[in-house]
């Protein structure tokens, strides 16, 4: 039975998330599966992956073939590297302690990069928020200045009108009866 590690689509239109499953290659995409080993949500930034590492490694070792997207996900999570290192141990290239040391070094550098990316995204969001807020403040100041100018013009018109009406009353001769 040809076994695949593939994505099974869930969610609604325009907001898909995926379960990472082990399935017979002859079954439909969203059909029956052997085991669910994780989930993948591309809607978050950066995309989030929840994976049962040891089960994914086991299925790769027994011959399950990942699809292209799942291969990328497994590579990012380090499953393919771990499989590669364990094959090196089997061949006698190095011992298991060396393989674990190399994997942990890779994992720590990967986490550092991910944290740096998350911090950068957070900083960019904060900077964009500050810029938007300052632009809004400037627009409000401009609007307030324009409104004050308009009110001053209206007051001047009203004052002028009052003065002209007072002047016209003074100039008109009053009739005495």
Q: Could you please describe the fold and organization of this structure?
A:
The chain has 177 residues and is an alpha+beta fold. The protein has two domains: 3-79, S16 Ribosomal Protein, Chain: A, CATH 3.30.1320.10; 94-156. The protein has helices at residues 53-61, 68-77, 79-91, 96-171; strands at residues 3-12, 15-24, 35-41, 48-51, 65-66. Strand 3 (35-41) and strand 4 form a beta hairpin. Helix 1 packs across helix 3. The termini are far apart.
Outline of this structure?
The protein is of the alpha+beta class and 177 residues long.
Spell out the blueprint of helices and strands.
Blueprint: E1 3-12, E2 15-24, E3 35-41, E4 48-51, H1 53-61, E5 65-66, H2 68-77, H3 79-91, H4 96-171
Helix pairs in contact: 1-3, 3-4
């Amino acid at each position: 039975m040809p076994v695949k590690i593939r994505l099974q689509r869930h969610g609604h239109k325009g907001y898909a998330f995926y379960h990472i499953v082990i399935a017979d290659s002859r079954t439909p995409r969203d059909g029956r599966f052997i085991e669910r080993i994780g989930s993948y949500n591309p809607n978050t930034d950066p995309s989030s992956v929840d994976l049962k590492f040891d089960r994914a490694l086991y299925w790769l070792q027994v011959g399950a073939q990942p699809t292209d997207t799942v291969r990328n996900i497994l590579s990012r999570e380090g499953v393919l590297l771990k499989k590669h290192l364990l094959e090196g141990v089997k061949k006698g290239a190095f011992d298991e302690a060396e393989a674990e040391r190399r994997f942990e070094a890779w994992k720590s550098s990967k986490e550092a990069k991910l944290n740096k990316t998350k911090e950068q995204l957070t900083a960019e969001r904060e900077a964009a928020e500050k810029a938007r807020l300052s632009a809004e403040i400037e627009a409000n100041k401009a609007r307030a200045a324009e409104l004050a100018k308009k009110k001053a013009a209206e007051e001047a018109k009203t004052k002028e009108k009052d003065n002209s009406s007072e002047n016209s009353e003074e100039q008109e001769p009053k009739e005495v009866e």
